[in-house]
Write a structure and sequence with these properties.
mainly alpha, 3-stranded mixed β-sheet, two-stranded parallel sheet, 63% helix
Length: 341
C-alpha cells in the first residue's frame, strides 16, 4: 500500500492534471501529418508491398488518435470554451463515429470502468469480465463457455467485430436505442467510408487503406485494455475492501515499451498513473510517474511474447491464494476438490 493516505496521494496527482492546449494541438497536428503521409503510401498502387507496411503503421496511428479521443471524453484534453478546444472536441467526436466508438456509450462504459475497476463484482462493464473460481464454478455451462470466449485471444484479436462493432454499436443500441442512437450514424459513416474506398479505389486499396488499419488498431487496443487489468501480480478485491488508489496502484499495469510504441499508444502503458487521476493528459503521464514515488513500483508487463502469453493465460481469481489462475490451474484445483470430497 501507499505510504501516504489515499486523499494525500490523490492530491499529489492533481499537480499533473493540467493541460497545455497548445501542446495538445501540436501533438495532434504531428499525428495528422504522419497519418496523411502514410495514408498516401497506402493509397498508391505504385508502392506495391510497401502499402501493407503502411497499413500496419496506419493502424498504429489510429491507436494514437484514439488516445486523443479517450482523453477528450475524460475531459482531460481540449478543455474549456475556447474555439480551439471546441474544435478539438468536435474532431474527436467525429473520429469516434468513424472508428465504431460512439461517444455516449464510450463515456458511459469507460467512466463506469474507472469507478469500479478490479472489483470482484461490477468490474465487467467497460472491461473484460473477471470472476473468482467459486463464481465461475457456480455458473451454468453456457455462461462458463461465454466467459471463456470473451476472455479468449481470438476475441481480443477480433476486437473490431466483438468489442467495437457488436459491443460499442449494435448491442447498446438494441438495448437502449434512445440513449445510444449515435450507433446509427457511426455505422453509416464507418461503412459508408468503406464503401466509398471500394467504389473509388477498388477492393485492395479499401482493404489496405481502411479495413486492415481498423482491424489492427482495434486488436491492439483490445489487447492493451486486457493487459492493463489482467497481469501477473495484479489484485482483485471485493466491494467492501475495494479502494480507488489501491486499484490504481495494484490492479492497473505499467506496460514497458520502446519509445516509439509509447508514442503510438499515447503513453497509455502508464496505465496505473492514468487510473490514479484520469485528468492527467497522456503526455504528462511519464512526468507523473517520475514525480510520485508510489507510482514507481507498479505491476509490470510488456509486449514481449512471453509477457503477452503470461497475461493471456490468466482468467480466474483465487480469493484464498490472492492471485489469478490459468484454466489449467483452476481445473487442477477442481479435480483436487473432487478427490478430497
Amino acid at each position: 500500500m501507499s505510504a501516504r493516505e489515499p486523499s494525500e496521494l490523490i492530491k499529489a496527482a492533481r499537480v499533473f492534471a493540467e493541460e497545455d492546449l497548445s501542446k495538445t494541438w501540436r501533438l495532434l497536428s504531428y499525428t495528422i501529418v504522419a497519418t496523411v503521409v502514410v495514408a498516401g503510401v497506402a493509397l498508391t498502387p505504385a508502392f506495391g508491398p510497401l502499402r501493407y507496411v503502411a497499413s500496419v503503421v496506419l493502424g498504429l496511428l489510429s491507436v494514437r488518435f484514439f488516445i486523443f479521443f479517450h482523453d477528450t471524453f475524460h475531459k482531460t484534453v481540449f478543455r474549456g470554451d475556447s474555439k480551439r478546444a471546441k474544435l478539438g472536441r468536435a474532431l474527436m467526436r467525429a473520429y469516434g463515429y468513424v472508428i465504431l466508438c460512439p461517444p455516449q456509450i464510450w463515456a458511459d462504459s469507460h467512466n463506469y470502468h474507472h469507478a469500479h475497476t478490479s472489483k470482484i463484482v461490477g468490474s465487467s462493464i467497460g472491461s473484460y469480465p473477471l470472476l473468482t473460481v467459486g463464481m465461475y464454478r457456480g455458473l451454468p455451462w453456457k455462461q462458463r463457455l461465454m466467459y471463456r470466449l470473451v476472455r479468449s485471444p481470438a476475441n481480443i484479436a477480433l476486437g473490431y467485430f466483438t468489442s467495437f462493432l457488436l459491443g460499442m454499436c449494435i448491442r447498446p443500441f438494441l438495448k437502449e436505442p434512445k440513449r445510444y442512437w449515435e450507433s446509427v450514424p457511426s455505422l453509416i459513416i464507418h461503412y459508408g467510408l468503406m464503401a466509398g474506398f471500394y467504389f473509388f479505389f477498388g477492393l485492395e486499396t479499401m482493404l489496405v487503406a481502411f479495413f486492415l488499419p481498423h482491424l489492427i488498431s482495434h486488436a491492439v487496443g483490445s489487447y492493451l485494455f486486457y493487459a492493463q487489468h489482467t497481469f501477473p501480480g495484479m489484485e482483485l478485491r471485493g466491494r467492501r475492501d475495494w479502494e480507488f488508489t489501491a486499484a490504481a496502484l495494484h490492479s492497473s499495469s505499467m506496460m514497458d515499451m520502446s519509445q516509439l510504441m509509447h508514442w503510438f499508444t499515447g503513453n497509455i502503458g502508464y496505465h496505473h498513473a492514468h487510473h490514479l487521476n484520469h485528468r492527467i493528459p497522456f503526455y504528462r503521464l511519464p512526468e507523473a510517474m517520475s514525480g510520485i514515488p508510489e507510482l514507481q513500483h507498479p505491476g509490470r508487463t510488456s509486449l514481449a511474447p512471453k509477457d503477452v502469453w503470461a497475461c493471456l493465460r490468466l482468467h480466474l481469481w483465487d480469493a484464498e491464494a490472492k492471485r489469478m489462475l490459468t484454466w489449467r490451474e483452476a481445473d487442477a484445483q477442481s479435480r483436487d476438490r473432487l478427490a478430497a470430497a
